[in-house]
Automatic annotation (TrEMBL):
This is Type IV pilus assembly protein PilB. Pfam families: T2SSE. The keyword Nucleotidyltransferase does not apply. It comes from the Bacteria. Belongs to the GSP E family. InterPro entries: P-loop_NTPase, T2SS/T4SS_dom. Residues 87-457 form the Bacterial type II secretion system protein E domain. It comes from Peptoniphilus stercorisuis. Keywords: ATP-binding, Nucleotide-binding.
Amino acid sequence: MNLNKNLINREEIIEKGIIPIYNEEILDKLIIKEDVNIEEIYLYSQNTNILKVDNEEFKKLKSLILIREKASDIAKIIEKIENNIKKDDLLLVKLIDYIIEYAILTNSSDIHFEGSNDDVVVRVRTDGVLNNLCKLKNTHHQRLISRIKILSNLDYTIKNIPQDSRFTYKFKNESIDIRVATTPTVFNEKIVLRILDKLKIEYTKEGIGLFGNNLEKVNKLINQPSGIILSVGPTGCGKSSTIYTLLEDIKSEDINIMTIEDPVEYKISGINQINIDEKSGFTFEKGLEAILRLDPDKIMIGEIRNAQAARTAFRASITGRMIFSTLHTSDCPSTIIRLQDMGIENYLISAGLMGIISQRLVRKLCTCKKKVVEYVDIYNEELTFYKPVGCEKCKKGYLGRIAVFEILILNQKLKEAINKNKSLDELNKIALDSGMVPLKEELKKLLLNGETSLNEIYKNIITINE
């Protein structure tokens, strides 16, 4: 295997299971998967060290190297743009492609393009946290914004009002939906790209983090013939992914599942999904009323936003339909109070509401973590847990995220308490007595198991009133 290095197709051999790490002259090292036969690959490999790793480790190394190379590509193309007097738009097109591909490779959820007095700053949200990716001179801001608007079929001549749209990006033979939102700011327009990559979602209950007692509770809920199941929590906590996973689980040829969403985030084969269009008057309320005339068995409402939509959903649930939806509340008991505050009658809540799934997404600690023993005020005891450190393969000590759940199944005691208009404290006590494990305690389990940090717990639960 003493062949010319120019014959090496780097991308192809990485996909086959070989990572060449080389300088400008020769290959220094080949990292290969344990199940790859190197003799089958044509490589210039004279005097090359060969390191065999298991397939999981290879996957991590491959991801790390591809991310580093894409970051390097971004830096090089920005240098060319800054040094190009003619302002070549093709370079700008390539830069946007590289930024999107970097975000996809790093499993980022959003890309922010922000103007300032001097620079355009690009930030990506990875594992729920925004990180600076790159910046270029503010003189390129308008061309950058216009290119993204053209890509997403927005009017690039409109700069003083918000716009939103979406487009599909082709990457490694996959089509990835990207949602685009623009708004004017004091410096210039800001654009945010939301990456809706359905390949990131593991459409199984175990894949989103449901195990043990929580899995049993969810299985019990989704096997009910009718009623409402609510997924609740703050923005970005994974509510939609949970609902999509449950729909995927119950999907069957003998039932009609319909959704009404703003917008449809992930397209699922075998489910009838409808986009609302408020500009034309097609609202959640009208969409839900239309769905009810189309013989549905299961219905998903993207979000309960007001009393009218909520009341229609609850009335549909007590006539024999199973409804799935989301709501912005902090925990399960407060969801009941929120529905009451929206004006939903107690008899509708107690009759229709089957269960509530409250959740958060917390960052997982990398293996570089360090063990500490400290007093923790929110648990009022000394605990042994881990803190983030940071290494070459993680983001400041974290690698990926994990979901944590608080699940409440409404029993007769809770239904009676709702009808009697009991307070939040009383509802919370009954919920705990009925077997609900609060988020605070579920997070403590992750802390003690070394899966997350104390800082992540502080970020995800309210402690000010304790």
